[in-house]
User: Fold these one by one.
Assistant:
Number 1:
Amino acid sequence: MGFYRSSDAPEERALLVGVKLPGSTLHREKTNLEELEALTKAAGADVAGTVIQQRTRLNGATYVGKGKLQEIKSRINEKGVNLVIFDDALTPGQAGKIETILKVNVIDRTELILDIFSKRARSKQAKLQVEIAQLTYALPRLKRLWDHLSRQVGGIGTRGPGEKQLEVDRRRLRDKISHLKRGLEKINKSTLERRKKRKELFSVTIVGYTNAGKSTLLNRLAGSDVYESSKLFSTLDSTTRKVESIKNFPVLFTDTIGFIRKLPPYLVASFKSTLLDVEEADLLLHVIDVAKPSFKEEIEVVNDVLSDIFKQASKGERRDTEVPTRLVFNKIDCLEDKGLARRLKKEYPEAILTSAATGAGVEDILKEIEIYSERDRVNIEATIPLSDGKTIALLEKVAEVTKTEISDDFIRITAMVKRGYLPLLEKKSRVRLLGVVRQG
Ligand SMILES: Nc1nc2c(ncn2[C@@H]2O[C@H](COP(=O)(O)OP(=O)(O)OP(=O)(O)O)[C@@H](O)[C@H]2O)c(=O)[nH]1
Ligand SMILES: [Mg+2]
């Protein structure tokens, strides 16, 4: 596990460590560690045990207290542990110190998530994105990596690279990151294709906490077979599916990577395609696993990531970048407390209750999408030269055509199109706006 360890390393047995600070509750920390356990398993390691320390404040040098570290050390020996995972971000200095004391590999939650990402990445694009995130993570930790190496090799001349060499390596790493970013821009073809389609068609992006059921819902809505699994972060690449028949109007559905608590912002930012999928959507479906007791906190986590994305999108401009969002309470088939569904409806009257597994409530989502997409359409009359077969064919594909008339060398098409498509259409033809109300 981890980006500087080989993949054929011996089996890993991990001890998980969390800290409860005054602002939190023991219950919440336990939930966090359960999630860390699921992440550890998703990365392919065994969990040998968990440790929670209650502290009034963190130990700057070693995160947990000295006494706790000794306790961890004895558990390591008892249980044959070869990896310790901290639930929170460790500073490079802390990780180094703890490793020196425990003498096994020490990683934090971010590194664990990055490891899962690198295992799951399939497409060239996802692989590049993960590599960029890993290098960005490694940059401030170079010194520790060097210390790692020198400890392993040992001997005179290997005890640390010296500040100068470190500076050179940092610069190299930064260059490498920019190089990869440029490479990513180039191969973002599928992203480009999706962006183009998104301007033509009403597009719905499915977001939410990891494992909420986003891919399962996409499969339900679009009749597709995107990979879904109980493992965290099954989806890394966004998938887009077109559905033809929502009120004679095609709709695009995009499934995205899941969010998770304590996700470092630069990790989200490295998934540029996800950012665009969110920013450029006409409607967001925020899927929530209500069978999880911690679902309210997960709603907050997702909302925070979304507002970060919108902040980045507007880059200080005061334009409205928020996209209308509907909550989708999923997995209602798993609710043991039948009263909960009723209470949820009361508390969140706007939310849609579904089970992507059984299909319950999926019709309600489609109806909602219909309403949103109708509001987004305008009635137009486009006059296109007959010689421009391409634009005519495209318009027939993306619009709901109500009338066509041919005169001389032109075809006049009356149709409902997505409002956002107008600027593109205007480049190709003469467009007259007939109003937003459906004609005839
Ligand atoms: N019981 C039940 N299980 C569901 C429902 N929806 C999804 N699941 C299950 O929940 C697990 C996660 O589903 P996915 O669709 O992969 O979740 P996701 O949000 O795409 O997850 P990531 O891509 O990993 O972020 C799978 O085992 C699904 O079978 C539901 O409505 N009811
Ligand atoms: Mg998924």
Number 2:
Amino acid sequence: MALLEIRNLNYSYKDGDGKRVIFDNAEAEFDSGLFYAILGESGSGKTTFLSVIAGQDNRYEGEVIFNGKEIKSIGLDKYRRTAVSMIYQNYNLINNYSAVENIAVAMDISENVKGLDKGKIMSVLEELGIDEKKANRKASSLSGGEQQRVAIARSILTDSPIIVADEPTGNLDSKNGQEVIEIFKKLAREMNKCVIMVTHNDKLAEDCDFIYRIDEQAKKIVR
Ligand SMILES: Nc1ncnc2c1ncn2[C@@H]1O[C@H](COP(=O)(O)OP(=O)(O)OP(=O)(O)O)[C@@H](O)[C@H]1O
Ligand SMILES: [Mg+2]
């Protein structure tokens, strides 16, 4: 049994009087310890797919099965607080909170974390190249690459088995982008995370263990 299985996924948006089908009986599965890329043209449904597997969108038919249980039966709230964390292209930090405060807020919401260990927050941040001074500055005063490292530290510290990233390198230069990819590889290989990254960039996907592509014509996810 895979960590996360998607079976018979059907998804469509209302589009004026009609509907626009994004997935038609799509299937995919994901396991711990692997770094996945999801490729697809703009508008093919990558963000839609991530929203579904991150428990942020319940307007799907079919099954999203985490550890053998359909996530709606787990409860999407609970699933989000225990199973999955999200990394975005625009980092999504609270601008006027420090890096440490941003992480503390997320740890507070996560059901995986008991108590706030500031030493642990600092040690993860330091490992990702954020020193104590930067960690205590407002998030908005950090560079894009630094903000994305803070967002990654936040995912690590909420201790979710699945990390989902939507174009995480989209706003970064190639050096910072490559560094983010190296961090994701480590999260999969050394921390046994299931890392699922959406990207436009075929080149970035080469570093992944497994590539899925969204087939816009068939409305399926293919390998
Ligand atoms: N709320 C909505 N109502 C109607 N159509 C929508 C809605 N949200 C998204 N869509 C459409 O669904 C399609 C898939 O959108 P999605 O954001 O998943 O694409 P994407 O693959 O992430 O694209 P990009 O690479 O540009 O981010 C697009 O054509 C989009 O216009
Ligand atoms: Mg998108």
Number 3:
Amino acid sequence: MKLKDAQTEIQQSLGYEQGMASEKGPVKPAFEPWGRYPKYDATLLPLHWQSDYPSIIRDIHHGVLPVGLGRSYGDVCLLKDGTLLPTPAMSRLISFDPETGLLTAEAGISLAQILDFAVPRGFFLPVTPGTKYVTLGGAIANDIHGKNHHVAGTFGCHVTEFELVRSDGTVLLCSPTQNPDYYAMTIGGMGLTGLIRWATLRMKPIVTRKIDYEGIQFHGIDEFLALTEASKNIEYTVSWVDCASTGKNFCRGIFMQGDHSTKRGELKASPEPKLVFPFEAPGQMLNHWTVAAFNALYFNKQMVKRKVLEMDYEPFFYPLDIALHWNRMYGKNGLLQFQYVIPWDNAREGTVAILKEIAKSGLASFLAVLKAFGDVPSPGVMSFPRPGITLALDFPIKAGRTFYVFERLADMTREFGGRLYPAKDAAMTAQQFQTFYPEWQQLSRFRDPAITSSFWERVTGESSNL
Ligand SMILES: Cc1cc2nc3c(=O)[nH]c(=O)nc-3n(C[C@H](O)[C@H](O)[C@H](O)COP(=O)(O)OP(=O)(O)OC[C@H]3O[C@@H](n4cnc5c(N)ncnc54)[C@H](O)[C@@H]3O)c2cc1C
């Protein structure tokens, strides 16, 4: 499957096709977030490079929301009974300077498309999430983080400027020095401050596709913390953690670390995914027993305490992108993702308590990731990362249980002084959100009055002023 085919496959699954212009009129299929929950009806009005956002929305009366590739897990990319403005057809590359690494592109371009262009020229993304099928605009709006947060900070740290279009026709060039308040509110502002039309990103030079990788087994939180401390100068670190085990296997995992190799090597575009998860899995496929069996196999597949190898960047950064639509594995009900960060003061105690609660619930899936965030400040007022420990995991949605466990875990996060990640959320309460993000009222003042999202309405009660 070629990149173009993969992008098309993804866009069709979201209910729109690349190149579909707004002149063709609105289309109205369901637009699912990655967690497949919640599901709301919305009108889709795709934007392209000539779209005039303010005039397009003139006749709309229930609010709008610009969206990317729907890789957020919950309702930050949804607007119930409103109009979504998908941006992936706004995907032109505008300029690239190999001297500085500065790349300017329309905001609907995907990170996969940027990599396809940049890697053969010896450049890589400064920060990347666990999937490359997200747009530049989506990466800014959620100020995403990657395995190098402890040294590179968030995605927004590398965005030198962008253009923001407001529904009243105002066009703002935003950077740390021009309209700095809009710059700081838009990075991590969940799309609420206006449409990001294009952005400039500082890419980083590489000499090969290869990563010098090391995988290290750990047993318990203290071994994880010791490995974190020892790897401060390694660019990428992340751990898989077994959330299902108790007793002597409690908090065992694999600490994965790597740097871009400095040995010159191949620099070509990636082969594209050949697999598509083919069917809706039955709801009971993921249960405590299948997850525990997977975790034991995954932990032991490494066989040795420490494994060193040179590996391609694709399986290192994007192991899950190998199969498109792998979220179908959770069946029609979908999944809730739970991701917290707890500041260092309570990070150890909070992580142990929450991992115990998760193991007790018997609900966790095998996709559980533990990482230490660093102290590089985020440029976004509403950005999620803080120095401390972050844990992310999926819960298959099971009637009557999953939401109850989620609420308990969110309350524990609050008690330990932590916060949850809106990009991954579909269930935190208004009270929880407003405690996690006291800056939300500031964002409310910068919100484009035409724009809102189901997430924003759920956690603040504010809707569009259209
Ligand atoms: C497998 C997987 C792994 C992931 N790993 C990570 C990770 O490691 N780190 C991390 O931080 N996140 C991670 N994520 C979450 C993902 O990176 C974010 O949710 C990202 O924002 C999704 O981008 P998108 O283009 O799909 O945008 P969408 O999900 O469609 O929208 C996200 C937000 O961006 C806004 N938006 C999109 N385009 C524009 C625009 N042009 N102008 C203004 N606002 C806009 C939307 O309004 C919405 O609020 C992961 C997701 C998946 C599915």
Number 4:
Amino acid sequence: MRCEKCGAILEADDGYEHAGQVLCEDCYLDIKAAPKVCDPWAVYTAKKEASQNPTLTSIQEKILNLIREKGEVTAEEICRETGIKEEEFRRNFAALRHMELARATRKGDEIYFTTFSS
Ligand SMILES: [Zn+2]
């Protein structure tokens, strides 16, 4: 089984269904966190902004620092340590992901957030 969006190979129970498509965790999280992730212009703009002007909001900086410091963190930990709401985290994490600074990964039943290159 493959993710219909990015083509990643999925374990039998790893697929997420969204609008009739089977997606990998990353693509599914992207859709849930940021409905506009499929817009190539938005991703292009985010990347361009990140390379030209790597200024993050203070929340994004806090999230990224925590991820860099700990390697892998859960959403609960991030929300607890930074004092933001989960919804706020999801929105800001989507921005970090678009800038290719952070990504989500799954271990067992837990979703962890980690740096893009690790
Ligand atoms: Zn995918």
